Amino acid sequence: TCIELAQTTICWYCNNNGIVYLSSPVTSEEGYCAFMLGKLKSAVREGVAVRGGTGRYGAIQRGTGQGPRWPPLADTAARPQSRRLRTEDLRDPDISKEIAVKMSRFHGMVMPFNKEPKWLFGTMERYLKQISELTFSEEGQLKKFNHLKAYNLQQEMRSLRELLEATPSPVVFCHNDVQEGNILLLAGHEASPSDKLMLIDFEYSSYNYRGFDIGNHFCEWVYNYTHGSWPYYKASPENYPSRQQQLHFIRHYLSEDSGRRGDTTHEEQARIEEEMLTEINRFALASHFFWGLWSILQAKISTIEFGYLDYAQSRFEAYFQHKAQCC
């Protein structure tokens, strides 16, 4: 499916798991789908940018000074007019409020893709299979890898699946990587009470559980990928949002969603908030698990200088600590 945006036509396609990809720009004469054109232009007006991107790779590369050039669309449309958020920005109440609103709008989009939530565990199962075939020749890496394998990740993922299957969470169209590097602060809008942010980079987008998208975002409050020395990230677990910060986010998310849900009583609102707190914090476990597996694989295949195995260790340590607190 192709959509025209900023005088450039970009093609969307998805695989059988409903994972969305963006291809390289093509000429406008090659056409586009009118349905998607309307949907995505509407999304852009609401602060969701449509472009391919570097996502988590880009966040890491920017932190190590190895960042890629922005693609042509971003060079002409986004780069001169914006900056990416910093990790500490996520804790700003006004910014957190707007991220909640943008995410709620994103979740309200109806996309012509497979709506079965296969992406999360389908991807993690594939990662685990690839990890089972990995070897490391360097002694330091091998020691770290063996330490990670001692967690019995296959069994732990079965336990996680059982927990999440018992945790109600709506299936919506998710971004799946709402971290500071994928949120632009639009230049000239810094003082605006709303519409100063734009979500970018859809490489992980798919139909998935709402709890994962929000829980993953909360986990990103902890990780700074612009740390200037090895391992090129800094984890600050104390920055995970407090109950009040989570409720602040949830209430603004729900206020944007109220048109789709209808009016609720005070008692119903309080019940929904408590249920979402449980949902989100359980799915935050899946965020730690997912990116932990991802990082083990990157340690083998990536050419970027980054402490991938250290990062994986950090994510799994956070997983078990969070599991002890919320489950």
UniProtKB/TrEMBL annotation:
Keywords: Acetylation, ATP-binding, Kinase, Lipid biosynthesis, Lipid metabolism, Nucleotide-binding, Phospholipid biosynthesis, Phospholipid metabolism, Transferase. InterPro entries: Kinase-like_dom_sf. Coiled coil: none annotated. One of its GO terms (biological process) is phosphatidylethanolamine biosynthetic process. It is an enzyme of class 2 (transferase). Pfam families: Choline_kinase. This is Ethanolamine kinase. It comes from Anser brachyrhynchus (Pink-footed goose).
